[in-house]
């Protein structure tokens, strides 16, 4: 069956307006014909719009599975014939584009590790001149909306008309985070604000990094008004050669898609949800800063406790406390905060400082045990 996306981006929008997200699914990597065929057989029965599979894999460390290359392109050509699903692959080199054209691939995507490099994106853009094919651009690994925007502009500059963005989360050194890649939702929201006609697809698989997170991230993406989902799907995820922890079976994908609650088909409501989510994200960031600042303030108090102990003075200094109350509430009032609010907040902070300093004066260490 021959497929042609006459207007890929418009198709995504149409789906969203109809309350149906645009769905891209398929394995992280094309591993064997049977694996592809088993996946495609199931996905062709689901509301899946595009079949994905990695043919050349960008691996963090050498020696890992790097994709099946040409062999995989041959398999994908057969899969397309057999199941009638249009096919998308990742391209990272100009010769990948030539081969994708040769093997009748329908859609290309640029991976996060490529988007990060303007030289490489430009090489791809140059190779795309004169090509008519939709291109999806994943966000760069680092949280930089301009770099993402820049990659989109380079591909647009090559004359590609059908462009979509894929939000796959951002690297960060946050070992406490439950995500593989931090979603940083304000970034794709900003991208959408700058490019109102650009479909933005969410990739919950690479954001979550664990299959248990895929359903809730997919719902969140829908709640925020994004246009579709890219979900890695494998017939035997545990034994997948790449991204084994985050892939789901076609049955699980079916369940995820069935349970999705598409909250609003009305743009006004979708915008409202989006801006509320956006404000919440900013609030989360501010709260994290407040807590960091409080921790730093407390550290400072402890250092002052040591000085007070060494110079044998009391922790509670009434003049200092009066001065704190006066200066802080003056500043608060200038910023339209109520004096009562800031005084009660400082009372709690000051009490905690005094408690910490008393521990130091009484010779207790941070673990609250008395020093010998
Ligand atoms: C992928 O889609 O399998 C992939 C390599 O993704 P990313 O570029 O987002 O890491
Ligand atoms: Mn992957």
Features of this protein?
alpha/beta, 8-stranded parallel β-barrel, binds phosphoenolpyruvate, 372 residues, 8 strands, disordered C terminus, binds manganese (II) ion
Topology:
Elements lengths: L7 H10 L4 E5 L6 H11 L6 E3 L17 H14 L3 E4 L3 H9 L4 E4 L1 H4 L2 H11 L6 E4 L6 H13 L5 E5 L18 H9 L5 E3 L1 H5 L5 H10 L4 E5 L17 H10 L7 H44 L7 H17 L4 H23 L11
Helix pairs in contact: 2-3, 4-6, 6-7, 12-14, 13-14
The structure holds phosphoenolpyruvate and manganese (II) ion.
Shape: elongated
Oligomeric state as shown: single chain
* Low-pLDDT runs: 368-372
In this structure, how is the largest beta sheet organized?
8 strands, parallel, barrel
Number of strands: 8
What are the distinct ligands in this entry?
phosphoenolpyruvate, manganese (II) ion
Q: What fraction of residues sit in β-strands? A: 5-15%
Share of helix, binned: 40-55%
Q: Output mean pLDDT.
A: 91
Give the count of helical stretches.
14
